[in-house]
Design brief:
With 357 residues, the chain is of the alpha/beta class. The protein folds into two domains: 208 residues, FAD/NAD(P)-binding domain (3-Layer(bba) Sandwich), CATH 3.50.50.60; 121 residues, Polyamine Oxidase, Chain A, domain 2 (Alpha-Beta Complex), CATH 3.90.660. The chain contains twelve helices and 21 strands. Strand 6 and strand 7 form a beta hairpin. Helix 1 packs parallel to helix 12. The longest helix is centred in the C-terminal third of the chain and has 17 residues. It is globular and about 70 Å long. The structure holds flavin-adenine dinucleotide (FAD). The site of flavin-adenine dinucleotide has 39 residues, from helix 1, helix 4, strand 15, strand 19 and helix 12.
Length: 357
């Protein structure tokens, strides 16, 4: 059975690690999806999507409660990956080096094709397989296709597949996603007294619900390995309302910051320094600034959003039956909920079902 996995985020990476003979296609130049990292140089990098993951989650199957132990799964499937507990959140972890390592390690033995943007899925001429067409014009035949992209992209991929009508009920209204804007500042060569203050901050992630800046992560503390390094990296993730309002004026297609944020970034950084109580840095311009926009950051109407994962759920059974019928497995946070551990658990369930066939 020839299997294609579209996407190398946590969902694609977990399935890829369980079905190593599958071909993994990723449209970006790197793996990771929404759990990804931006590299400025050898020593400076920061996560622009997910920043932590939970260790364990419960789920129900055949009326019995089970536990998915993500850390144990990673130990087995990605033995070289080193992870650390998050200093602030209990039961939360991140890779020792950078978030993108999650997918990289899980896919270390897989066939991964980067810069492969799947454009269209249609039936093969004999109707027995699926033809996958890429933006480059290349086509490949597969028996089974696993789609892990956000729903709006999946709907576009399947528009000529002839199966969309049957999926419509289940998938279309789950296609609403929140957006999230991200702003990062890097300050280099800070004096020792300020660095000591930063390093002594007990909690380095702050949540301000209902404010523009919703989540602030001092990425340099998360990944600091060298005490002599005197740079500070702060990443701000903005609230849904702020992000949807400013989505089109944040950064251009080349990820270059646009006029609006070029003018207002200092205001946001000053708010952070005010909250962290580092007045010495107020009005200090960053040496480097980075912007990112996540158009599809979190699925708003996931089947198991914020609820227990119940594999006996009637809708879930209906969903599995459709996947099996077409040999097109559509999975990701729109089913399991927008958390790495949920997507990872979901990926193990889907891989098990495919391997049963
Ligand atoms: C800003 C932000 C912060 C978050 N913080 C946390 C957190 O701290 N903890 C947590 O647990 N979760 C967090 N999440 C949620 C978590 O990141 C996601 O739920 C999870 O990463 C989704 O993984 P996925 O593999 O299902 O999808 P994705 O990561 O989106 O992977 C899909 C992949 O498919 C690729 N792709 C799409 N279309 C195509 C195509 N046509 N051809 C080829 N490839 C394609 C994409 O490039 C991508 O790599 C956060 C999300 C965001 C955006």
């Amino acid at each position: 059975m020839k299997i294609a996995i579209i996407g190398s985020g946590i969902t694609g990476a977990v399935i890829g690690s369980l079905i190593p003979e599958a071909y993994v296609y990723e449209r970006a130049s790197h793996v990771g999806g929404r759990a990804t990292t931006r590299f400025v140089n050898d020593s400076v990098h920061f996560d622009i999507g997910a920043t932590v993951f939970k260790d364990k989650i419960e789920y129900f199957e055949k009326g019995i409660q089970h536990e998915f132990d993500f850390i144990q799964f990673l130990k087995e499937r990605a033995p070289d990956l080193k992870i650390k507990p998050h200093k602030t959140y209990p039961s939360s972890y991140h890779p020792s080096n950078f978030m993108q390592e999650l997918s990289q390690s899980l896919l270390s033995k897989s066939r991964v094709e980067l810069l492969h943007n799947a454009e269209l899925i249609t039936k093969s001429p004999d109707e027995k397989q699926w033809t996958l067409k890429f933006a480059s014009g290349k086509t490949e035949l597969f028996d089974t296709v696993i789609l892990t992209a956000p729903v709006p992209q999946i709907i576009s991929l399947l528009k000529n597949s002839g199966i969309m009508m049957q999926w419509d009920d289940l998938i279309r209204f789950r296609g609403e996603y929140r957006s999230c804007l991200v702003l990062t500042g890097i300050w280099r060569n800070l004096p020792p007294d300020i660095m000591n203050k930063i390093k002594s901050l007990k909690q380095y992630t702050y949540l301000f619900k209902d404010e523009e800046a919703e989540y602030i992560s001092i990425e340099s503390e998360k990944y600091r390995t060298n005490d002599l390094d005197n740079s500070l990296v702060i990443t701000i993730q903005f609230s849904t309302s702020f992000s949807s309002k400013n989505l089109e004026r944040w950064c251009d297609v080349d990820r270059k910051p646009m006029y609006y944020i070029l003018n207002s970034n200092q205001y946001f950084f000053n708010r952070v320094f005010h909250v962290l109580d580092i007045p010495e840095l107020i009005s200090k311009k960053p040496d480097h600034m980075d912007t990112h926009k996540w158009r599809y950051s979190q699925a708003d109407f996931a089947l198991f959003k914020d609820t227990e994962i119940n594999l006996d759920h009637a809708k879930f059974k209906e969903y599995l039956a459709l996947c099996k019928k077409h040999n097109i497995w559509i999975t990701g946070d729109w089913i399991w909920g927008s958390r790495l551990i949920r997507c990872a658990l979901g990926a193990t369930v889907i891989a098990k079902e495919i391997l049963k066939k």
